[in-house]
Amino acid sequence: MLRSDLIQSLNKDFPDLSFNDASHCVALILNAMTHQLAQKGRIEIRDFGNFDLKHHAPRQAHNPKTGEKLVTEAKYAIRFKMGKGLKDRLNA
């Protein structure tokens, strides 16, 4: 689903909501989620799932083409764990 699909779905379900208002609502929600994850926080949406960050420490690696050894930088990745409600709907 694209952002525009989500906006159209909101607009269809709530006809009193203008397209610009629906677009603004989607942007606010996504910005709030982004801000929470950027602060190394956790997002929990009941019956949907959890978003949190996983830290990957630096590690030894090599370039397979040249054989050059290097050390990767530490980084964070977003991890999603689906909730029970979503799991039950998918496996119904």
Characteristic terms for this protein:
single chain; 92 residues; alpha+beta; HU Protein, Chain A; three-stranded antiparallel beta sheet; two-stranded antiparallel ribbon; 27% strand; elongated
Count of individual beta strands: 5
How does CATH name the architecture of the largest domain? Irregular
The major pleated sheet works out as:
3 strands, antiparallel
Order of helices and strands: HHEEEEEH
Just give the CATH class of the largest domain.
Answer: Few Secondary Structures
Q: List low-pLDDT spans.
A: none
The CATH topology name of the largest domain reads HU Protein, Chain A
Going by helix content, strand content and strand pairing, the class is alpha+beta
Principal-axes geometry comes out as elongated
Strand proportion: 25-35%
Roughly how many Å is the radius of gyration? 19 Å
| Helical content band | 40-55%
What value does the average pLDDT take? 94
CATH evolutionary superfamily of the largest domain:
IHF-like DNA-binding proteins
Query: Count the helices. How many?
Result: 3
User: What number of domains?
Assistant: 2
In what order do the strands lie side by side in the largest sheet?
Answer: 1-2-5
